[in-house]
Specification:
single chain, 475 residues, alpha+beta, seven-stranded antiparallel sheet, 25% strand, binds adenosine-5'-diphosphate, binds magnesium ion
Length: 475
């Protein structure tokens, strides 16, 4: 993909002036993060979330494909979350060696044993893709992963289109400015929460947003809270610690927080081991046992693990999970990259041998979220050498490395001067679905997120300090 901003990226003086304008517009639009120094407060200083000066070119066909397959991914995640046999079989080797997944699985089993009190289910996910550059130079949409818990940046992504339109308007590129897609994930995500809240059916019940006090990305979360309040649905923000102190269940397993009934629990925390103390695990169990709508419930969080992603790519799995839906299956499968199990046995041995022969073609992934956990290149080789004779290897999966065609853009970050670099992008599509009992009452997409990073970084998202916010410029 050649960039159409080529000549603009060469004029340093113009870039600096444009960058100043873009940053001011980003601040004015609320494209904000709390700072590293003050992550618990918005009181003294906040700054803008890093972003690209220009929108990056994305082929229309790939955007359309990503949108079209989102409802299929919603169905798939929902099907996996309801299939105890599949989850148990898929995760059995992983949970022997991965403590975090094992803890989640433990809660899942406890809830299953007691009986699931929840009757309304809400999925807010984000399926992420890169554009693999084929041998003939054409790009193909390949899924990186699907995030079924705390999928973030929908709020800020709702505000970045105006920033890029501004930049193009300053340059008198008014026609180009109108081509930037409108995007409103915060509204779409809030509509999902609102539907779940309504189906829960208690007019005075609240939405409980679980987050930490140290939360740099609070403005992203607030965008969704604001949409809910505009619909007269009240949100309270609490930490897991607050839940263990002041949360309780009544005899019908209704959830109460500070004495108020909770209809929906929306997790923006709880996806990494470091986020759980013993007390927090207790709190998570309490929430899961309740009849409140959890977003996600523990089964749906497990459905988002990398091990599940890898097993889904196995021959016959999609057919088993989505019987009679051959068109959906074809759409889903077209986005799958090569995924390989590292379970003990011949298949795993062969995958390891291939990765050791051609390390640049693979990524090694543990069962972790949040960026910065995957291993590439020499680090991957060392890890595979260490792991290959141990059943610990089953806590990882191996994935084909996607190689997009790099392009130039200018990255803006607080405290650094504008940097023109070779970049690659990752496109995320937000998915929303609501199920009541066995009936799917909502299944839709809710906008997109484009993140762009310099090619020198193999891993990492915006929160990890690597990627920056962007918008697709459809071509
Ligand atoms: P996390 O749950 O930590 O976000 P991801 O699977 O999304 O895990 O990987 C983190 C980052 O690593 C991605 O945002 C992407 O930049 C890079 N990455 C992951 N998988 C691949 C892959 N198969 N090919 C190329 N880059 C990848
Ligand atoms: Mg990711």
């Amino acid at each position: 993909m050649a960039t159409s901003w080529g000549s603009l990226l060469q004029d340093e003086q113009q870039l600096e002036e444009l960058a100043r304008q873009a940053v001011d517009r980003a601040l004015a639009e609320g494209v904000l993060l709390r700072t590293k120094q003050e992550p618990s407060s918005s009181d003294q200083v906040v700054s803008y979330a890093p972003f690209t000066l220009f929108p990056s070119l994305v082929p229309c066909a790939l955007l359309e494909q990503a949108y079209a397959v989102q409802m299929d991914f919603n169905l798939l995640v929902d099907a996996v979350s309801q299939n105890a046999v599949f989850l148990e079989q898929t995760l059995s080797s992983t949970i022997k060696r991965d403590n975090f997944t094992a803890k989640l699985f433990d809660i899942y089993k406890q809830v299953l044993k007691e009986g699931i009190a929840q009757t309304v289910f809400l999925g807010l996910n984000r399926s992420d893709y890169m554009f693999q550059s084929n041998a003939d130079g054409s790009p193909a949409l390949k899924q990186i992963e699907i995030n079924t818990i705390s999928a973030s940046f929908g709020g800020l992504a709702s505000r970045t289109p105006d920033v890029h339109r501004h930049v193009l308007n300053v340059l008198n590129k008014t026609t180009e400015a109108t081509k930037i897609l409108s995007n409103n994930p915060s509204k779409g995500l809030a509509l999902g929460i609102a539907k779940a809240w309504e189906l829960y059916g208690s007019a005075n019940a609240l939405v409980l947003l679980i987050a930490q006090e140290k939360e740099r990305n609070i403005f992203d979360q607030r965008a969704i809270e604001n949409e809910l309040l505009a619909r007269n649905i009240h949100v309270i923000r609490r930490r897991f610690e607050d839940v263990s102190e002041k949360g309780s269940l009544d005899q019908d397993r209704k959830l109460f927080m500070d004495g108020q009934e909770v209809a929906v629990v929306y997790f923006r925390d709880g996806y990494m081991p470091s986020q759980y103390s013993l007390q927090n695990w207790e709190a998570r169990l309490l929430l899961e046992r309740s009849c409140a709508v959890k977003c996600p419930d523990i089964a749906t969080q497990l459905a988002g693990t990398k091990k599940v992603q890898q097993e889904l790519s196995r021959v016959g799995m999609l057919e088993m999970l989505l019987p009679g839906q051959s068109e959906a299956i074809a759409r889903l499968r077209a986005t799958f990259a090569g995924l390989y199990s590292l379970d003990m046995g011949e298949e795993g041995d062969q995958a390891i041998a291939e990765a050791l022969t051609a390390p640049s073609r693979f990524v090694l992934k543990p069962q972790r979220e949040g960026g910065g956990n995957n291993l590439y290149g020499e680090e991957m080789v060392q890890a595979l050498e260490r792991l290959k004779d141990s059943d610990e290897r089953a806590s990882y999966i191996l994935m084909e490395k996607i190689e997009p065609e790099p392009f130039r853009n200018c990255l803006l970050r607080p405290g650094s001067s504008a940097r023109v670099v070779q970049c690659i992008s990752e496109l995320g599509i937000f998915g929303v679905y609501v199920r009541q009992g066995k009936t799917l009452v909502m299944n839709t997409h809710a906008g997109h997120l484009l993140r762009t990073k310099a090619i020198e970084h193999a891993d990492g998202g915006v929160a990890a300090g690597v990627a920056v916010l962007d918008n697709p410029y459809p071509v």
